[in-house]
Amino acid sequence: GGGGGNAPVRIDVEIGSLLEGSLDQVMKMSRSEVRSEWEFTLGGEVASDGDKFAGEWFGLVMNRVCDANYGLWRNEARGGEGMCLHIDPWSGTLHPDHLSYFHFMGRLMGKALLEDRQVSHRMMPHMYKCLVGADFSTHDVKALDPRYHRLIQELDRVPDFDSLCLNFTITEEVPFGGGTREVELVPGGAEKMVTRENLTEYKDALTNYLLV
Question: What residue stretches are annotated with the HECT domain (predicted)?
Fold first, then answer.
């Protein structure tokens, strides 16, 4: 474990508000408290077999926060590797405080690493690049959306960009019957046309839009 000799930090578990109650308590912790041993109580009583209870708590909370129906993550098929997590770009629509949920999940993942706990949910490869600040590549797009990956590759073979009338925008579907809307890939993108000279900038902007 990653307790480091500090006194245990208590987490009061309420089954009826498992995710929200856990988030509230974990996000109030200091960094040293996150690294300390956690002691769980259920109904005011300290849980017997604390390590087993902690493992079950981790599993239940992660299942809840990663459930695609909850609106924070999408499950994307990745070949023979099964389903992998990708942030739902509309998470802020369902959850105005969605960033606190992602921060919470980051703390849980860090805690799992400290205690050598396995997390059953896998993220898309580019999500791990986000965690360490690495640059994206078009290969990351291929894993998420092969259609856009082909489009990006084909742009290198376009002889005349004027005929494309392509600017630095993308049209996205708005969920819940909201139709479509145009999104600028860079500030002023609606007035910025794609040319041979700025093609790399366009591809980078499109890649970042698709992956972040």
Answer: 23-212
